[in-house]
Amino acid sequence: MTDDAKTPVSIIGLGLMGTALARAFLTAGHPTTVWNRTAAKADALVADGARLAPTIGDALGSGGVTILCLTDYPAVRELLGGAELAGTTLLNLTSGDSAQARETATWAEKQGARYLDGAIMAVPSAIGTDEAVILLSGPRPDFEIGALGTISHLGEDPGLASLYDVAGLAMMWSILNAWLQGTAMLKTAGIDAATYAPFAQQIAVGVAGWLPGYAEQVDAGAFPAEVSALETDARAMAHLVEESEALGVNAELPKLLKAMADRAIAAGHGGEQYPVLIEEFSRPGQ
Ligand code: FVH
């Protein structure tokens, strides 16, 4: 049953994610129109109450907000290239980088569309729950899409959602890689991954707690060594490199960490605290 008081939505792109988005809207009672290049992927949604748009133009013209969830930005531009966009509201939840988001925003606005960019920080099975975080950037949304999860509008710059998306990926992969490094080392002593995981989790949670204080140092551009100096940390990094090599596990990641600290120390920052490495992270790598 659809509820006419709810924002009408059109979903363009019914891959794994687009299908989950459409299903969440249907479940919440939004009038839901769908379109997909391979039309058969719409069958189950149509059976459950979605309206199949016969053309892209029809999907764009059905009012409310049109949500794009395609493989990449070139696919979005190819698909919308010849379409009439004047008067439409577009929300592009396709993954990409901030330059693609800004370029697409400029292009769509020139065609007369209201354009928001977005990033989905969730897997399809989480869509429709609070755990699904959807980041938006561009003009403040004038539609209601809370059925998808936790919606966060980051600001007017359309590139912000993509930037936060990749910054989140940096966190995710850094934590996972650090955990895998420790897991590989402990495996050499017969400790299995499940035994190490709770300890690793405790460290990750503890370090996460340092972030607000360290962020204050980064924003102030002042890095007094209140807890530990970088040169002390670098000595511990040397232990990590040496231990990895001695155990015959991969030492590339520990060496990278140490190389960055060594450069900062060579530049005179050895007596300052770890966040001084922001200077290394803020310029192109070597
Ligand atoms: N799946 C996930 O867990 C992640 C979570 C984080 C965000 N992503 C992003 O969501 C976008 C879509 O991902 P997806 O998983 O739905 O991807 P697919 O299942 O491969 O579906 C791709 C859809 O795109 C359509 N498509 C591709 N190229 C074109 C084109 N040139 N013209 C029209 N449609 C196109 C494709 O159509 P079809 O192959 O079914 O005909 C699918 O509908 C993506 O940016 C993720 O990074 C998901």
General description of the model:
With 286 residues, the chain is an alpha/beta fold. The protein has 2 domains: 9-156, NAD(P)-binding Rossmann-like Domain (Rossmann fold, 3-Layer(aba) Sandwich), CATH 3.40.50.720; 164-281, N-(1-d-carboxylethyl)-l-norvaline Dehydrogenase, domain 2 (Orthogonal Bundle). It is 48% helix and 12% strand. The chain is built from 11 helices and 8 strands. The chain binds ligand FVH. Residues 13-18, 36-38, 41, 69-72, 75, 78-79, 94-95, 120, 123-124 line the site of ligand FVH. Ligand FVH binds next to α1 and α4.
CATH topology of the largest domain, which one? Answer: Rossmann fold
- How would you describe the oligomerization state of the chains in this entry? single chain
How many distinct beta strands?
Answer: 8
Structural class: alpha/beta
Average pLDDT level: 97
| Level-2 CATH architecture of the largest domain | 3-Layer(aba) Sandwich
Named once each, the bound ligands are:
ligand FVH
- What's the alpha carbon Rg, rounded to whole Å? 24 Å
Fraction of helical residues = 40-55%
Largest sheet: 8 strands, mixed
Provide keyphrases for this structure:
alpha/beta, N-(1-d-carboxylethyl)-l-norvaline Dehydrogenase, domain 2, 8-stranded mixed sheet, 11 helices, 8 strands, elongated, binds ligand FVH
